[in-house]
Amino acid sequence: MKISPGKIKGMEAVANAKGVIAAAAMDQRGSLRNLIAKEKGVDKKEVNADMMSEFKEAVVRILTPHASAILLDPEYGLRAARARAKNAGLLLAYEESGYDNTKPGRLPDLLPDYSARRLMEAGADCVKILLYYAPTDAPHINDEKHAWVERIGDECRGCDVPYFLEFVTYAEGVDEKSIDFARKKPDFVIRAMEEFSRERYGVDVLKVEVPVNMAYVAGSRACKGESAYTRDQAKDYFRRAASVAKKPFIYLSAGVSNEVFSETLELASETGVNFSGVLCGRATWKDAIPVYGKQGLRALEDWLSDTGVKNIKNVNDRLGAAKPWYGFYGAQSAAALA
Length: 338
Known about the structure:
Elements: H1 5-14, E1 21-26, H2 30-40, H3 49-63, E2 69-72, H4 78-81, E3 89-93, H5 116-121, E4 126-133, H6 139-159, E5 163-169, H7 179-196, E6 205-208, H8 231-244, E7 249-252, H9 258-271, E8 277-280, H10 282-285, H11 288-295, H12 297-316
């Protein structure tokens, strides 16, 4: 497995000195607008572009000194991108906001006025897309999704820019927070990691969910009732998922609290899996939305400077077991790949 010079350069830009990706995520759009509107007590149409940019810029300015990179969207995040710390690389999202996607099969769309080249021209070190994926969907739905991922992979190869694929698993008609889905999730995550590790897709980094729902891991602090797996079973799922990955992979926080994500990383570290870091969003800053909605920018900045920084440090402190991304290429350093 080889990696090109442009992709090496992009990967170095978003990783820390140890080759670990300790990145923050602030590419939410539809979901962020809805949450701000709720806290302000207004219609979401009243949450304008300036408000979105203002929130993102505060998060980026205050948190990126503690991150190796920041993931933003080009719709509301470019002003914020200019405010990031010098140590932080930049990933830009290529997909249209997917959190309010109501299409059958949750089929994805790309931003119509962007391309991988244009994202690079906007300053991106890496390109990221989000895909909702269910291995059990009808073949014609997944054929379309597979072709979509391939198409972007070829575009990123042509521009020589790293390609991050984030996939979020689901099952039609099943509540993704339920114990029923928790039982399906390990298999879904494992199958998705195996599928998108294939060279035909051109993915450089898999941004993945952990293969279990911590709320259903017996004995975990997050588990408040019935369980779907023992701690040993959960650890086995982590190992099985890692074993099928043929590309570097990092964990996403998937909207859980900072406490739950921290416990998740502790469990991942116990298993010894070769994850290469995190792209952590809402677990760091979600609780700041009510502060901003009710008290404004200054209160948001104060919250981020205190609790937000503590949150991102909590995550960073649990990355000691993470492995450098270039280890997947059999190298001891990024320079050795050149």
